[in-house]
Structure formats: structure tokens, C-alpha cells
């Protein structure tokens, strides 16, 4: 199967009108997707996208088009080679390497290729991956720059060691789903009343963890954290997320002030590039028991490797569209398993829940084999635009069974929310 053509779309949703998604660094996001449809010579299609929060989405779309000549005419039978072509082109590599807009664009195309291949095989992506022999999984990863932490031989041993019990784990997912937590109560732009109401509803709906955005005003955060704790009680985990707002000392000071309300983790306390800074925050917060989480803006597997080597994170937060798609996320899942750190994916936005559920399910079935302290973020926005939206029940993601990557937006959505000329924006 070879790629015959690609079509791109700039799709934007006016989420800033309701302050959905508002946090300390992103007060008014318009959730958006630089979206690509690849069509194979068989007539089959694969859909993929990368996520942005509005302005600049057109730059990602242009980058996808700049990468198109590298994939037209290419086979998707070897998705390891396919992914490497996109990240190793000697001229385009100058724009990264392996970071920024070109990497987001590579993610969109690589994810689309996985949707195409899994759809053609009649399997959801998690199962398509889990059914591959460990040798083929190892070949999907670009091992360059990882050998001081993990190499293909050790990864192969890990994957073989994870094989016993996989059928039971699939059955467990089918029965109980994969645990989720919800960020819906905690947007910074919401009133106290809305926070309390949504936090209470989250517990009623079966969630064992919620998340609050913090970092704009300390007095507000102490009040909101106290309200949330009073509402959910002691048995529910409350994570907090600063979205990179602080310097290192400020992060420690701020979180020490919130510590009496028992935050489960602090997410993105500072710059995603600051490995030593995260290590310092983690060390300072150790006595309080507050964990450090990051990853949604970590640009590639090499930075994840360093965060793990430097003991800088407790929780690894992959994102389906920030690094180079499925392939690079497999590398990060393997690194996290090697260092014994749980992976709790970033999701929300538009379509991130739909994609990343497949990676966590694959991790449980075939890599880490564990659900201990693992949860996938869930945000209840914009799922109605997908052909196969995620299904949440009793605070858990149900196992996706439809073929592909759950990535396809409805044709009406691609038309209505096209920027700037679709009916929603014109
Ligand atoms: Mg976050």
C-alpha cells in the first residue's frame, strides 16, 4: 500500500468564547487541529492531525504540506522507515531538529499513516500494535540518541517479559476500561460555583482524580484548592497544573503553600526544557509527597530520556501529537517502563483523548503491564466532532474496538469549522 495523495485542513473551534481550556499561560485558547487525510493507492484513507490552540495552526498546516513530498509514493508497510523519513530529511531537519512546528507536522502525518494501516488491517491501533511481534515493535523506534539509557536489545527483553498475561489484561480493559481523571472542573476561568459543581459531579460520575489549573494568583489557588478538597473529600486525588508558569523557586514556594490540601502532582511547574529545574523542584517537594509531572510540551524522546535520567519527574505525560506520533511515543513508553515511572498521558484539546487512549491501552497490554497510579486525562469537550469518539463510563475509558486511530472528524465538522472561510468563522 502506497500513499497517492494528501489533503490538509485548518480546523478551529471557538472554545475561547466559554473560557473552556483556560489556564495560567493560555487564557483564551481556540482548540484547533492541523488535519491531514492521506489517500492510498488502494483507495483507503488515513486521518491524522496535530493539536494547536489557534493562531499558528496555519503554520502547522504549511509544515505538513512541506513534508508531503517525502511521503507521496511511499509505502506504509514499514512504519518505522516511514517515520524516520519524516524526521531525518537533511534539509527540513534544520528547522528542528525533532522539535517545534516540523515535529508537530511529522506527528500529524505519522499518526495518519497509523490510522491508514490499522484501518486496512481491521484493528484499532492499540490492538494493531499489541499484535506485532516484539521484534517489530523495537524496529518502529528511532534508537538514535537513546543508547546511554536504553537500547533495542534490552527493549526486546522488556517486551518479551511483558507477554505473559496479555490476554487477561485485554479482558480486564474490556470489562473495566482504563482509569481516567477529569480536568473539566478546574479551568482557571471558571467561577467558584462552577468549580464546586463540576468537582462534585466528577466524583458522582466515578472519577478518582480531578485536576485544577493553578499559577495565576496564589490566594485564588488556595481558596479553589480548599473548595475542591472540601467538595471531593480525602479519598479523591487532586492534581494541579501550572502550565509552565513559574521559575523554580516560585514553584517550590507556591506548591508548599498548597501542600496542606494534599495535591497529588504538580504538572508543568516550569519550562518543559528545564530538566535540572524539574529535578530541583522534585527534590524540594519530596518531603511534602507532591509528585512532579511533565511531558505535554516535551519536544522529543531525548528530553524525556534526560528527565528520567536526572530523576526530575515522577509522572511521564506523553502527548499523541507533540512528539513524532506513535513511533516516538513507543520509545517514551519503553523509557518510562525501564525507569519504573507511570505514564499518565496529556489529553483534552481536540481529539487528544481519542488518539492517546490507544497508546495507554497498548502500554498496559504489551509494555508496562500495569495500571498502578496510571490515569489518562479526560476533558469533556468536542468529542461530538469525531466519527468514533472516546467512550467514558464510571470514570474509565472504554476499550476502543473500531478499526483505526479514532482520529476521524466528521465531514461536516471539517467544512463548518474550516478557518477562516468555514461557516463558523466567515
Ligand atoms: Mg497540562
What would you say this structure looks like, in words?
The chain has helices at residues 57-71, 79-88, 100-121, 125-130, 134-139, 152-161, 166-176, 192-204, 218-232, 248-258, 275-285, 301-309, 325-339, 352-367, 411-416; strands at 3-12, 32-40, 45-52, 178-186, 209-213, 237-241, 263-267, 291-294, 315-316, 376-378, 392-393, 396-397. The protein has 426 residues and is of the alpha/beta class. The protein has a domain at 166-413: Enolase-like C-terminal domain (TIM Barrel, Alpha-Beta Barrel). Strand 11 (392-393) and strand 12 (396-397) form a beta hairpin. The radius of gyration is 20 Å and the shape is globular. The two termini are 38 Å apart. The model has no long low-confidence stretch (mean pLDDT 97). It binds magnesium ion. Magnesium ion is lined by residues 241, 243, 267-268, 296, 346. One of its GO terms (biological process) is carbohydrate catabolic process.
Oligomer: single chain
Which parts are unreliable, with pLDDT below 50 for 5 consecutive residues or more? Answer: none
Helix count, per DSSP?
15
- CATH third-level topology of the domain at 166-413: TIM Barrel
User: Mind telling me the CATH superfamily name of the domain at 166-413?
Assistant: Enolase-like C-terminal domain
Query: Which descriptor suits the 3D outline?
Result: globular
**Overall pLDDT:** 97
N-C termini distance = 38 Å
Provide the CATH architecture of the domain at 166-413. Answer: Alpha-Beta Barrel
SS-derived structural category: alpha/beta
CATH class of the domain at 166-413: Alpha Beta
Q: What ligands can be seen in this structure?
A: magnesium ion
What radius of gyration results from the CA coordinates? 20 Å
Helix content: 40-55%
Major sheet characteristics:
9 strands, mixed
Helix and strand sequence: EEEHHHHHHHEHEHEHEHEHEHHEEEH
Proportion of strand residues: 15-25%
Q: Quick one: how many beta strands?
A: 12
Domain Mandelate racemase/muconate lactonizing enzyme C-terminal: 192-288
Protein name: L-fuconate dehydratase
Pfam family, one: MR_MLE_N
Cofactor: Mg(2+)
Amino acid at each position: 500500500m502506497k500513499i497517492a495523495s494528501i489533503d490538509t485542513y485548518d480546523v478551529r473551534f471557538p472554545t475561547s468564547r466559554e473560557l473552556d481550556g483556560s489556564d495560567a499561560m493560555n487564557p483564551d485558547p481556540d482548540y484547533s487541529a492541523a488535519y491531514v487525510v492521506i489517500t492510498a493507492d488502494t483507495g483507503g484513507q488515513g486521518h491524522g492531525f496535530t493539536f494547536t490552540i489557534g493562531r499558528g495552526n496555519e503554520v502547522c498546516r504549511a509544515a505538513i504540506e512541506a513534508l508531503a513530498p517525502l511521503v507521496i509514493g511511499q509505502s506504509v508497510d514499514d512504519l518505522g522507515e516511514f517515520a524516520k523519513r519524516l524526521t531525518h530529511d537533511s534539509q527540513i531537519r534544520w528547522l528542528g531538529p525533532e522539535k517545534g512546528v516540523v515535529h508537530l507536522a511529522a506527528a500529524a502525518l505519522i499518526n495518519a499513516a497509523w490510522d491508514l494501516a490499522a484501518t486496512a488491517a481491521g484493528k484499532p491501533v492499540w490492538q494493531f500494535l499489541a499484535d506485532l511481534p516484539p521484534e517489530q515493535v523495537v524496529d518502529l523506534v528511532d534508537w538514535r540518541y537513546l543508547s546511554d539509557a536504553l537500547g533495542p536489545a534490552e527493549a526486546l527483553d522488556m517486551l518479551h517479559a511483558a507477554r505473559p498475561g496479555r490476554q487477561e489484561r485485554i479482558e480486564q480493559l474490556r470489562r473495566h476500561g482504563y482509569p481516567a481523571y477529569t480536568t473539566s472542573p478546574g479551568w482557571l476561568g471558571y467561577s467558584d460555583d462552577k468549580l464546586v459543581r463540576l468537582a462534585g459531579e466528577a466524583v458522582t460520575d466515578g472519577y478518582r482524580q480531578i485536576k485544577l489549573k493553578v499559577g495565576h494568583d496564589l490566594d485564588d489557588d488556595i481558596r479553589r484548592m480548599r473548595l475542591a478538597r472540601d467538595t471531593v473529600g480525602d479519598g479523591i486525588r487532586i492534581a494541579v497544573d501550572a502550565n509552565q508558569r513559574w521559575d523554580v523557586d516560585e514553584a517550590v514556594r507556591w506548591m508548599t503553600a498548597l501542600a496542606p490540601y494534599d495535591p497529588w502532582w504538580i504538572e508543568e511547574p516550569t519550562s518543559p526544557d528545564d530538566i535540572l529545574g524539574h529535578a530541583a523542584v522534585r527534590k524540594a517537594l519530596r518531603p511534602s509527597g507532591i509528585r512532579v509531572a511533565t511531558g505535554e510540551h516535551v519536544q522529543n524522546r531525548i528530553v524525556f530520556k534526560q528527565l528520567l535520567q536526572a530523576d526530575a519527574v515522577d509522572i511521564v505525560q506523553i502527548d499523541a501529537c507533540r512528539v513524532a506520533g506513535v513511533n516516538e511515543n513507543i520509545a517514551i513508553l519503553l523509557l518510562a517502563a525501564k525507569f519504573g515511572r507511570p505514564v499518565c498521558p496529556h489529553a483534552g484539546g481536540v481529539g487528544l483523548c481519542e488518539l492517546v487512549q490507544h497508546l495507554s491501552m497498548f502500554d498496559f497490554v504489551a509494555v508496562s503491564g500495569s495500571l498502578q497510579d496510571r490515569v489518562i486525562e479526560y476533558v469533556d469537550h468536542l468529542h461530538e466532532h469525531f466519527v468514533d469518539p472516546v467512550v467514558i463510563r464510571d470514570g474509565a475509558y472504554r476499550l476502543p474496538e473500531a478499526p483505526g486511530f479514532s482520529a476521524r472528524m466528521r465531514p461536516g465538522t471539517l467544512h463548518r469549522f474550516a478557518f477562516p472561510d468555514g461557516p463558523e468563522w466567515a
